[in-house]
Amino acid sequence: MIDRVHWIDKEKLTKFILNCQDQENGGISDRPDNAVDIYHTYFGVAGLSLMEYPGVKPMDPAYALPLDVVNRIFLRK
């Protein structure tokens, strides 16, 4: 996907991720109505962040961590 971000339909991907949410208990699954798990929850939120979804902290794509955490780690050196 490097240099191919324009291939992604951000609106459809956002809708898909949000449809995979468990509205009652929280978490994100790999497909709508499947069981949620930590892996898909984490990377679902990371995907929303990289698509600049409102209310989600910016993520560093190389480290898959929030930008403020990455900046704090590297500014301590």
Automatic annotation (TrEMBL):
GO cellular component terms given for this protein: Rab-protein geranylgeranyltransferase complex
GO molecular function: metal ion binding; Rab geranylgeranyltransferase activity
All residue ranges annotated as the Prenyltransferase alpha-alpha toroid domain in the record: 1-64
Cofactor(s) named in the record: Zn(2+)
A Pfam family the protein falls into: Prenyltrans
Keywords assigned: Metal-binding, Prenyltransferase, Repeat, Transferase, Zinc
Domain of life, per lineage: Eukaryota
Family of this protein: Belongs to the protein prenyltransferase subunit beta family.
Name the record gives this protein: Geranylgeranyl transferase type II subunit beta
Organism: Arundo donax
